[in-house]
Specification:
CATH architecture: 3-Layer(aba) Sandwich
Oligomer: single chain
Helix content: 40-55%
CATH class: Alpha Beta
CATH superfamily: NAD(P)-binding Rossmann-like Domain
Shape: globular
Largest sheet: 7 strands, parallel
């Protein structure tokens, strides 16, 4: 069993879906959790579940498009729990539209949240991790950033950017004992994918060799590995969690 005893993790976008499952998985492994989302009240459920299970959790409101909020997350972890060992950059949004109809604000909001937010959180967290000379950063990318998906130019571009950012950051911080990796989920059953038209869901399922839609736990399990000492010699990697969709 993977143990994260005495570790402290920041998870952005932790109120629901993949982020919530990651926060719960890290907590079950023993980590104290700083759970972040744009509105603190959204975090009530996951924080209560962590505490009910005997874990430690601190909810923090954060808009990852603002560097001061990202710095506050890192500072809150150190102030409340004494250190910062793990950062999971999960916060993300979609604003789907085809290129010809995509508005500037639809493009910019997705890029700012998904890519700039990841950059800001890495920059903030690495300051604490460099002092410790250790840390694990896991970015949530997407197979959309590898394959491209119709109607998601903004989302695919942001996730492709996250993949490139992961590789650059892994090189820059490796000498300080910080590993930085990304996971690229495919079709995962969340509120976001449940809102898709049925024909899109069916077409996506037909592309998956394993023949099933993923669940948030499929992603959380890989993140748990990357957050642990078992992945100590893994950095700059992009691990697809897609049932073979993008093989």
């Amino acid at each position: 069993m993977i143990s994260l005893k005495d570790k402290v993790a920041v998870v952005t976008g932790a109120s629901r879906g993949i982020g919530r499952e990651i926060a719960l998985a890290l907590s079950r492994a023993g980590a104290a959790i700083v759970a972040a989302d744009i509105i603190a009240d959204l975090l009530k459920g996951v924080v209560e579940e962590i505490i009910a299970g005997g874990g430690r959790a601190l909810p923090v409101a954060a808009d990852v498009t603002k560097f001061e909020d990202c710095q506050n997350l890192a500072d809150a972890a150190v102030k409340e729990f004494g250190r910062l060992d793990i950062l999971v950059n999960n916060a993300g949004i979609t604003r789907d539209n085809i290129i010809l109809r995509m508005k500037d604000e639809e493009w910019q909001k997705v890029i700012d949240t998904n890519l700039k937010g990841t950059f800001y959180c890495i920059k903030a967290a690495c300051r604490a991790m460099m002092k410790q000379r250790s840390g694990r950063i896991i970015n949530i990318a997407s197979v959309a950033g590898l394959l491209g998906t119709v109607g998601q130019a903004n989302y695919a571009a942001s996730k492709a950017g996250v993949i490139a950012l992961t590789k650059v950051a892994a090189r820059e911080f490796a000498s300080r004992g910080i590993t930085i990796n990304a996971v690229a989920p495919g079709f995962i059953e969340t509120d976001m994918t449940r809102a898709l038209p049925e024909e899109v869901r069916t077409a996506s399922l037909n592309m998956i060799p394993l023949g099933r839609v993923g669940v948030p736990a499929d992603v959380a399990n890989v993140v748990l590995f990357l957050a642990s000492d078992l992945s100590a010699y893994v950095t700059g990697e992009i691990i697809r969690i897609d049932g073979g969709m993008a093989m």
